[in-house]
Structure formats: structure tokens, C-alpha cells
């Protein structure tokens, strides 16, 4: 039964290892004004198939939000149209980007479902101009509304003295060795033996063995870190490297910038939208270029303050909160 005092929202998401921090942020935003029912898609829960769980979530709530235009969004949009419910889809990654798929092509089945999502969703909310432009290749809709991710500058803030270390954050999995630039990052560390490098992220397959084989003694694989330990690493690090071949936004990158890490990045995907002129740009896949970029970043520590100021100005949590809540309120009057 629906809550009579507050509208209810289903949040449907699919991530490689549970609820990502940017999804959790949106859940917290929605809970400030709505009853929220999170639904993790990707396997039976208590014996109930995913398709039935999505149907139940849509039927029992006033509206639904899908993070990424994957299968859970495809089902939610179909059920929403059948039941006369509004559906919101947040577009944010390889749901619309062929760059993030093997062979640089979205599989035919995924493309068909994506087009159905783009055609049928009540509201489409890409998280960057890059994602919006990619989505437009599959739809002639003109009402896509870019709502960037938002961050709390009080939660991520510099603290104490920087220790000169270099950091990158990513799940460790086979396809990320290239796409997230993990292998070039590890090889760049070998070129700067006097510096301490960290690779923070939970291993999801045996690709960690390949990275360890390439690693020098100045590189530390931390594995998964608690929120507190991760923030401490960001606060101590002088440089944050995002050597990706594509990013729909770059959540960890923005968090590092708030901690006044100087960003060393590629110019791929939405990374330039986040970094602007506050970082050092390097060649994708090139360890020598990454090492050179790290040296330049260490020589220009003042860039870290500019990086923080950019995120505070352009990607505030309050801006995302206002946009999400106003969008949903307009659909659930």
C-alpha cells in the first residue's frame, strides 16, 4: 500500500559491485522528500526473478528512477507505460557509449533496448554533455536534460599536509586495464621510482595478477578501502590520475579534485567537462606521458586549489538535489 503522506519512488540500479556512491547519493537525495524503494537488478532475491521485482517496484510506487539505461530501465519503462506511471532514466556510461564495449560497438540487443528506453522514458537525465550527445545518436528527442553529478565540498575537503603521493581509484577487472588506464598507470609508476603510487579498488577478477606482475615496489595495491580510509588517501595524495579511454563523468575524479589533488587526465569522454583547465592532460595508454604529467602536476601544486574551486562552483550537491527533486515533484503532483 502506498504511503498516504509521502509519494513513493522506486530506484532501480545495476552496478558491478553493489550500490555505487553516486547512486547512493541520489537515494539519499530522494529520501529527503519521498519514500524510496531501492531495487538492485541482477539476480533473483529470495527466489523472485528480476522481472517480477521490477514489476512490483513500479506497481507499488508513484514513479521510478533507473540509474543507467540497462535492462532494469528497459523493463521499468515498459511497465511504467502499461501502468501509467512516470519513469526517469539517468544516463551515465556504456549504456550510450560504444567506447566502453569490446570492439567499440554496443551489442545489437543492448542497442535495441536502449532505443526503447530513450523512446519511452518520461524524462531522460544524462549526467554530462558528453553523455547527452552520445544518447542523441540513438534518439531524435530534444528534451534531454543534463544534470551533472553533485558533491559535498564539506565531505571531501583537504586536510593536513600533502605527502606527494599519486593515486587512482577503480575496480580492478579485465576490461578496466585499458578502459580505466590501470595498466598504463602501473607502468608509469615504474618510471618514477622515487614516488609512492596507490591503486585503490576492489579486485573483481584475476586481472589483478597481471597488474602485480607489472608493478614496481613503489606501487601499493590497497584493495577495497572504507569511506574514511579512502578520504584520508585523497587528502594526503598530491596527484590523482584518471587515465581512462572514456568516462561518462568521473565521480572519483571530482572527489579527488575537492581534496585538492592535481588531476592528471586524458581528454576522453566527459573528463574535460569536469577538469577544464585545472589539470594536466596526458595521452591515453601512454605510461611515459602519464609519468611526465605526474611530474608536471607535482611542480604545480597550486592547481589543486583551482581544481577544488571548479568542482565547488560547477558540481554542487545542492544543484543536483534541486534538479532531481523538482523533476520528480513535477511528475507526481
Give a short summary of the structure.
With 333 residues, this protein is of the alpha/beta class.
What does this molecule look like?
Strands 8-7-6-9-10-11 form a 6-stranded parallel sheet, with helices on both faces. The protein is α/β, with parallel strands linked by helices and 333 residues long. The protein folds into 2 domains: 8-149 and 316-331, Glycogen Phosphorylase B (Rossmann fold); 165-314, Rossmann fold, CATH 3.40.50. The protein has helices at 21-31, 50-59, 71-83, 108-120, 129-135, 176-179, 182-190, 207-214, 227-236, 251-258, 271-275, 287-299, 303-314, 317-331; strands at residues 8-13, 35-40, 63-67, 87-91, 123-126, 165-169, 197-200, 219-223, 237-242, 262-265, 280-281. The longest helix has 15 residues, at 317-331. 41% of the residues lie in helices and 16% in strands. It has 14 helices and 11 strands. Strand 4 (87-91), helix 4 and strand 5 form a beta-alpha-beta unit.
